[in-house]
Design a protein that fits this description.
The protein is an alpha/beta fold and about 260 residues long. About 35% of the residues lie in helices and about 20% in strands. It has one domain: EAL domain (TIM Barrel). It has 10 helices and 9 strands. The termini are close together.
């Protein structure tokens, strides 16, 4: 849990920017300085088995110093400077350093691009942890072009014990191709499918399709953005195996 006395620090996982602040000039993001200082923090959001209500994993969410704590602007700036892979590796390193502080029967999920997944720097990091407890969420990347070129990378990662997940299933036009290329062990259903799913037959059909696909493929279906008990009840009815969202808990820093 976060230190309750740290009242000036923004709650992890919650944006502190108002609509007015987005109109102001954003502060300069010193990516190089960040990489040198190693001041990335990590918040963890629990992932729950929808049958047993047990916590089965945590997603690691990078948080950055200064006025802009959310990862989006930092990774955009890193990409503009040609440092996106370096920043991803630094974020994964910060997360993996916390793996031993989590319960031994849960996994940790971290987000990486295909290029980072194939990098020697990531392989080096994974060689120092219990790989079977690590899930790599492979982000769709239009710049990659062809995912089959990474099939050897994914096979090697799996042989070490690492599991592979795809994110945002059900929203992007290329998601099905992405899944065919990656052959994921975990299929994460997008928050926009989860939101209000109890009222929407189309969303229910999409979620049920991914639940069936995951079951047939020996994968885990996981719904993101679960916020209400009604959403949870419908996801259970549809056969979704796991869930993540504010209903189960907001992202939290580990105690110091």
């Amino acid at each position: 849990m976060e230190d309750s006395t740290a009242t000036t620090e923004p709650e992890p996982g919650v944006s502190t920017e108002s609509d007015e602040s987005t109109e102001r000039v954003r502060p300069v993001l010193d990516v190089v300085g960040l990489l040198q200082s190693g001041t990335i923090r990590v918040a963890f959001q629990r992932i729950v088995d929808l049958t047993t209500d047990d916590v089965i994993g945590y997603e690691a969410l990078a948080r950055f110093p200064g006025e802009v704590v959310s990862p989006g602007p930092w990774f955009a700036e890193a990409a503009a400077q040609g440092l996106e892979k370096e920043l991803e590796v630094a974020a994964v390193k910060a997360a993996l350093e916390c793996l031993d502080r989590l319960p031994t029967d849960v996994f940790m999920a971290v987000n990486v691009s295909p290029l980072t997944a194939a990098s020697p720097a990531l392989s080096e990091l994974l060689s120092h942890v219990e790989a079977a407890r690590v899930v790599l969420e492979i982000k769709e990347d239009a710049a990659v072009g062809s995912y089959p070129q990474f099939s050897t990378t994914f096979d090697e990662l799996r042989s070490s014990g690492v599991r592979i997940a795809v994110d945002d299933a059900g929203m992007a036009d290329v998601s099905l191709r992405h899944m065919l290329d990656v052959r994921p062990d975990i299929i994460k259903i997008d928050v926009d499918v989860t939101r209000g799913i109890e009222h929407d037959p189309i969303k229910q059909t999409i979620a049920a399709t991914f639940a069936s696909l995951a079951s047939r493929a020996g994968a885990l279906s996981l719904a993101e953005g679960v916020e209400t008990k009604d959403e949870l009840a419908m996801l259970r009815t549809l056969g979704i195996a796991a869930g993540q969202g504010y209903l189960f808990g907001r992202p939290e820093y580990l105690p110091a």
